[in-house]
Design a protein that fits this description.
With 264 residues, this protein is of the alpha/beta class. It has 8 helices and 7 strands.
């Protein structure tokens, strides 16, 4: 049997997204890309990729189509309401409904003491992480309610539950706000048949995390119970589960996909 660090996430065969129309923000790289591909492999009828970088987004859309699903890319900045509305409208015009959304787009400041951060840093973090989620919910919820329900997963972080490292005060505070927003929205919308949950990744090897200065991947991984950093695919599995019928009685939950960090 392979060690845990050598195993690869199961790629297909369970069809947990069978026939669903899904939207992934920040879908051009990292966790967003991995989730879009996992949805495609598990039978999604369509995956809409939203993000700021066109070449990356179009490449992911092409990968999804190669996996057998319909897909297209929409250039969008989730901090701009007009962009968010256009993404949701594009899904509705093309496919007639929106069943699943993974609100993944976000930003992490460069690691630094709080007193050295400025208003520009604050705005960049909170606009992407909190305003972006708010705007996505604002436009996704009516679309899903009109179709009889849906499933939304929001990318939070273990930093919103417990700040694991000094130097990321803004990111941690923004993700705590995201978790509170998730729970409030979940309570409001569960009676309408819209399940809202969050996934809270731990230390995952993404470009954003490594650029932020979290530390050396090997040493950070060695400090975790599983003795490795997470892969984007590890989080994608958790997102797809939350968005599937397997989690049909899960509402307002924050699922830590963190290699055991929160338990330690």
């Amino acid at each position: 049997m392979k060690a845990e660090s050598e195993r690869q996430p199961r790629a297909a065969g369970r069809n947990r997204m069978q026939g669903l129309v899904a939207l992934v923000t920040g879908g051009g790289s990292g966790i967003g890309r991995a989730t879009a591909l996992q949805m495609a492999r598990e039978g999604a009828a369509a995956v809409v990729i939203a993000g700021r970088r066109q070449s990356e987004g179009e490449a992911v859309a092409a990968e999804c189509m190669a996996a057998g699903t319909q897909a297209f890319y929409v250039q969008a900045d989730v901090t701009r309401e007009a962009d968010v509305a256009a993404v949701v409208d594009a899904a509705l015009v093309r496919f007639g409904r929106l069943d699943v959304a993974f609100n993944n787009a976000g930003f992490q400041e460069r690691r630094a003491p709080l007193e050295t951060q400025n208003e520009t840093d604050y705005d960049a973090v909170f606009n992407a992480n909190v305003r972006g989620v708010f705007l996505c919910l604002k436009h996704q919820l009516p679309a899903m309610a009109a179709g009889g329900g849906g499933r939304i997963v929001i990318n939070a972080s273990v930093s919103g539950l417990r700040n694991p490292n000094p130097g990321f005060a803004l990111y941690s505070a923004s993700k705590a706000a995201v978790i509170s927003l998730t729970r409030s929205a979940a309570l409001e919308n569960a009676p309408r048949g819209i399940r809202i949950n969050a996934v809270a990744p731990g230390r995952v090897e993404t470009d954003m995390m490594m650029r932020a200065g979290v530390g050396d991947a090997a040493s950070v991984g060695a400090s975790l119970p599983l003795r490795r950093m997470g892969r984007p695919e590890d989080v994608a599995e958790a997102v797809v589960w939350l968005a599937s019928d397997e989690a049909s009685y899960v509402v307002g939950h924050v699922l830590a996909a963190d290699g055991g960090f929160m338990a330690s």
